[in-house]
Amino acid sequence: MINNNSQNENTAESGFPSAFRISSIVLTNAYGKTADIKAFVTQTTITESIYTYSLVATIEVRDTINLFEEFRISGQEKVEITFYKRDRGSKDTTKIKKTFYISEIPTFGKVKDALQAYQFTCVSEHAFYNHVVSISRTSSGSISKQISKIMKGDLGYSGIVESDSDSKGNVKLIIPNLKPFSAINWLLRHAYSDTGSPIYAFESLNGFNIKSYKSLAEQSSIGTYKFNFLQETNPGTPEGYEEAKYKIISMSSDLNSSKYLMSARGAYASTTRVVDIAKKKLYDVKFDYRSRFPQTPTMGDRKSKELISSEFKLKDETLNHHHDSLYIYMNQNSMAYSDYKNYHDPAIYSIGQHQSMLENLDSIKQSIVIHGNLEINAGKKITIEAPKSIDPQVLKKIRDKDAKKSAKHDMMISGDYLIAAVKHTFGSEYHCALTIKKDYSYYTLDSAE
Fold it and tell me: What is the mean pLDDT of residues 61-65?
């Protein structure tokens, strides 16, 4: 079974960061029959992302007791997973208990006469409800509160729904016979915080989150993870445990630094062309990345640098002055209501910045794998440190001195990142595969610390 807990027998204290314990994986079929299938599961993966409204679980089963036929598995089953994690030296054990519904059985095969293997793809309970519910009604108030109402009311979400602030403006609108997830997606298109930051709605292991980009950017980092090929301390010691816990096992980069493509998508300049139907008025709202950067929340600290240079010019203008790069067309009815605004109103002065922030967050992406940690969730911030690509002996001499941080680390890669997605994999060990993003350049080449 997927239960490599590596724990002290009496204390249940983890000896290694990748240790874990799954106590049960209970399968309930369409007729109410239950069984703990933990012994037949070879690997379980739970994925969370700031771009999805539901957790997704993948369960790989090695069936030697003809479970598939005996339980009449048909895609109408419920799976309840309970697992534990405890750090070395900690008195607290983290317990996670999640209920999923099988949404698909993508693979099935007879391995040999007495063995068959298959895989369950599962979603959260409210995601299954989404496919059997439609919304057709008027709605009013802040968009973030309307999303919360959909989750708690229409989808019957019983977990924690955490919303950090109201979205900008009170609007009145009609949800035109949409599935709940489609309605949330439609609402998020014009949901902004007071700073113009986009708002994300997503489920993590902690519950459902409705968070503005500003709050995600301004939160504290939950830890600094280092990319080192060699472990410097004894793995059996408390110091060795801490080093392994914050070690990046593998890392690959997706430096999507194409200013050629990003400029055409409104990353640095755009024009919102607005038609006010009530007043028969046409006007433009221009967005300038560089003028707004000092007020724009970013994943970095106060030393963060802009992603574009003031020296690089096209037609004698910097990228932030090419407002013809992207045109966004919007209609407005400023006299539709006396006490409310219509659906498009919050977007008029915010959508340019919204588009820029979404594009720039994709400018620097990393994929890393670390030892398992249930506190690593989508929407949190982490810090990574990567060594410079220089001779190890030279790097050792630098480390031995009282050197600047920028002299020891690759500052193009190092820095604060938003966790966009996490894949928790429980197999022979517990690992987390992270997709992390940042939207800034930490230092210029001649910057000092």
Answer: 93
Rg of the chain (C-alpha set): 25
Q: Is the pLDDT of residue 7 over 50?
A: no
The tokens of 221 are what?
């980092």
Sheet holding 207-212, edge to edge: 161-163, 207-212, 199-204
Tokens representing 120 are 């369950």
Q: Please give the pLDDT value at position 169.
A: 65
Tell me what pLDDT residue 394 has: 58
Q: What is the pLDDT of residues 368-401, one digit of tens each?
A: 999 988 889 999 999 998 877 765 665 565 555 5
Structure tokens at 155: 């989808």
Q: What is the pLDDT of residue 447?
A: 42
Residues 6+ apart with CB under 8 A from 258: none
Closest CA to 172 of 333, 349, 283, 354: 333
HSE toward the beta carbon, residue 250, CA cutoff 13 A:
6
| Domains of the chain, CATH where assigned | 21-126 (2.40.10.10), 133-213 (3.55.50.20), 220-255+362-420 (no CATH), 259-360 (no CATH)
Q: Kindly report the backbone phi and psi dihedral angles of residue 387, in degrees, each rounded to the nearest multiple of 5, phi listed first.
A: -70, 160
Residue found under tokens 């504290």: 220
What local confidence, expressed as pLDDT, does residue 12 receive?
Answer: 38
pTM for this model (two decimals): 0.88
DSSP for residue 303: T
What is the C-alpha to C-alpha distance for residues 88 and 56, in angstroms, rounded to an integer?
Answer: 29
Whole-Å CA distances, 99 to 1, 46, 157, 201, 289: 20, 12, 12, 20, 44
Q: How far is CA 287 from CA 185, 323, 344, in A?
A: 24, 7, 17
